[in-house]
């Protein structure tokens, strides 16, 4: 029983979030991050414009 509680606690530490391109193409991808971390902004390749552009976290999809 104690082991089950520990695994549930560790599972709730990460969440799946949706990152959306700021180039205005509508391209997005999902990324796993820590629940305690601030919202993500990162450079990633956007295949529609063939460049690395800024992606910003739009919403939380689910807990992992």
Automatic annotation (TrEMBL):
One of its GO terms (cellular component) is cytosol. This is Large ribosomal subunit protein bL33m. GO terms for biological process: translation. Transmembrane segments: none annotated. It comes from the Eukaryota. PANTHER family: 39S RIBOSOMAL PROTEIN L33, MITOCHONDRIAL (PTHR47037), LARGE RIBOSOMAL SUBUNIT PROTEIN BL33M (PTHR47037:SF1). GO terms for molecular function: structural constituent of ribosome. The keyword Transmembrane helix does not apply. It is found in: Mitochondrion. It comes from Rattus norvegicus (Rat). Belongs to the bacterial ribosomal protein bL33 family. Keywords: Mitochondrion, Ribonucleoprotein, Ribosomal protein, Transit peptide. The lineage of its organism: Eukaryota, Metazoa, Chordata, Craniata, Vertebrata. The gene is Mrpl33. InterPro entries: Mitoribosomal_protein_bL33, Ribosomal_bL33, Ribosomal_bL33_sf, Ribosomal_zn-bd.
């Amino acid at each position: 029983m104690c082991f089950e509680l520990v695994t549930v606690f560790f599972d709730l530490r990460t969440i799946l979030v949706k990152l959306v391109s700021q180039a205005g193409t509508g391209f997005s991808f999902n990324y796993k991050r820590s629940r305690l971390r601030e919202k993500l902004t990162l450079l990633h390749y956007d295949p529609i414009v063939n460049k690395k552009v800024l992606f910003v976290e739009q919403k939380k999809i689910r807990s992992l």
